[in-house]
Structure prediction request, 65 residues.
Amino acid sequence: MISINQNIPTSTLLDVKVGDEVDNGAGKAGEVSKINITETDEYLQFLFGLNNGQEIEIRKLKQIC
Prediction:
């Protein structure tokens, strides 16, 4: 089981694959059936679709120097 939330590194979120078991620590957990990653100038948005019909959405702000 992989714990995913706003506080984990982006690299860990990028390593999640379809078929992995995930848990967001807030009541949503299951096997990943689809992954959608959207990138803007300001953030990366991860949408993990689970086999049980739930979705986990995580938005990571980009570091701008």
Notes: The domain at 2-61 is CATH 2.40.10 (Thrombin, subunit H). The first helix runs from residue 10 to 15. The longest strand covers residues 29-39. The chain has one domain: 2-61.
